[in-house]
Amino acid sequence: MRLISCVMSCTVALAVSGCYHYVPATIETVPDGSRIRALLTPEAQQRLREIHEVDAEGFEGTVVARSGDQMSFLVSSGPMVAAFGAQQVFYQQVDLRRGEILRADIRRLDKLKTASLLAAGAAAVTAVIIASTSGGD
Predict the structure, then answer these.
(1) Residue 32 has what pLDDT?
(2) What is the C-alpha separation between 133 and 27, in angstroms, rounded?
(3) Cα separation, 37 vs 19, whole angstroms
(4) Mind listing the pLDDT tens digit for each residue in 15-36?
(5) pLDDT, average across residues 48-55
(6) Distance CA 62, CA 55 (A)
(7) Residue/partner pairs of 112-118 with CB below 8 Å, 24 or more apart
(8) DSSP 3-state assignment of 25?
(9) Backbone angles phi, psi at 114, to 5 degrees
């Protein structure tokens, strides 16, 4: 039974982490709440380094709100931190003008890859069940 739960856990972990891909999008069409990856202008990169201590050409974040030319994003502010036995990720809000974003890619679910991973996981669990029930006599 432990082997089955291990196989299931591995399958779920693979399915959740590997089933997304990024596709190019115009920043105007990205809906609030969407997870995006953005490439920024050098000026925006410098401002983020100074104000938010974010050091990258771009970032991955979630669109929180927009108002006129301004957009707000939630971005991870550092690595996961263990606190009181639980892992926490801290986020900060970053405000950018649309002109500071050179390229935006939106995160999309890859349905074919997801279905393939789930089918492979189901096959693995089935094989483990068959092997464990038929091999003990």
Answers:
(1) 92
(2) 54
(3) 16
(4) 555 688 889 999 888 899 999 9
(5) 76
(6) 18
(7) 113/18, 113/19, 113/21, 114/15, 114/19, 117/11, 117/14, 117/15, 117/18, 117/19, 118/11, 118/15
(8) strand
(9) -65, -50
